[in-house]
Every structure is written in structure tokens, then in C-alpha cells.
Write a structure and sequence with these properties.
Elements lengths: L8 H10 L4 H13 L5 H14 L4 H10 L12 H13 L7 H13 L4 H7 L3
Length: about 130
């Protein structure tokens, strides 16, 4: 599983449990992988954050997805989320910020669905 991509410890446990391996064997195997540096939650988190950032996802969505994968500690501060929100809005809707409330609301809902917070969304509409 680790040959294709990084996995969190939780993902590995879940996948191996589905294949009906013994729980003690799963725990021992994962400990061995960690010891030999084949599995690292920190490395997984870094790769995951970079992948989702490149896909145009915001920090709210990324943080939620990481927590669902069993990652509690991660650093999202290395990215410019304001610039990404603005770029995503401009790529989808163009450079001109609409004056109509309904059009702005639609664009803001889109950015919110991508995982940006309200401050980042409002900054994406600033000139």
C-alpha cells in the first residue's frame, strides 16, 4: 500500500482490518513500518496538504480531511491561502468582481465549498 502513496496510520489500520488481519498483527506491522521509516504521519500530512493545495482546496477542508485520516497535528501556515482563494475565484469567474449581491454570494459559496474561511473568501473579493 505504501508503494503507491503515503498513508496515515489510521488508513493502514482500516485497510488491513478490512482484509481481516488480526488486530495485534496490524499494530505490530505498523509499528515496524514506523520504526523503519516506511510510514510517517508527518510525511503523509505534508504530502496530503501539498496535494490538496495544488487541487485548489482551502485550509478548512484540508484540516477536516486530515482529522478524518487520524492526523491531529499539522502545519498549514506555509501556504498563502488568500492568494489561492483569489486565484481560484478568478480562474472560475474572471477578474471582474461582480457588484450584484446574488453573483457575489454564489462565488462566495463556491469558495466556501472549496474549504476557505470567511476572511479568506472576503479577501478574495478585495481589489
Amino acid at each position: 500500500m505504501l508503494v503507491r502513496r503515503e498513508h496515515s496510520q489510521l488508513e493502514l489500520k482500516q485497510k488491513l482490518s478490512l482484509k481481516e488481519f488480526d488486530t495485534n498483527d496490524i499494530v505490530h506491522a505498523i509499528e515496524l513500518l514506523i520504526e523503519q521509516n516506511y510510514q510517517s504521519d508527518d510525511r503523509f500530512a505534508q504530502d496530503f496538504i501539498q496535494m490538496r493545495f495544488n487541487q485548489g482546496k482551502g485550509p478548512v477542508k484540508i484540516a477536516l480531511e486530515l482529522k478524518q485520516r487520524g492526523i491531529e497535528h499539522f502545519d498549514l501556515s506555509m501556504f498563502d491561502w488568500l492568494d489561492l482563494a483569489k486565484t481560484i475565484r478568478e480562474d472560475k469567474y474572471g477578474l471582474i468582481v461582480p457588484k450584484e449581491y446574488s453573483k457575489q454570494a454564489k462565488q462566495k459559496r463556491f469558495l466556501q465549498s472549496r474549504g476557505f474561511d470567511f476572511d479568506q473568501i472576503n479577501q478574495a473579493f478585495a481589489k
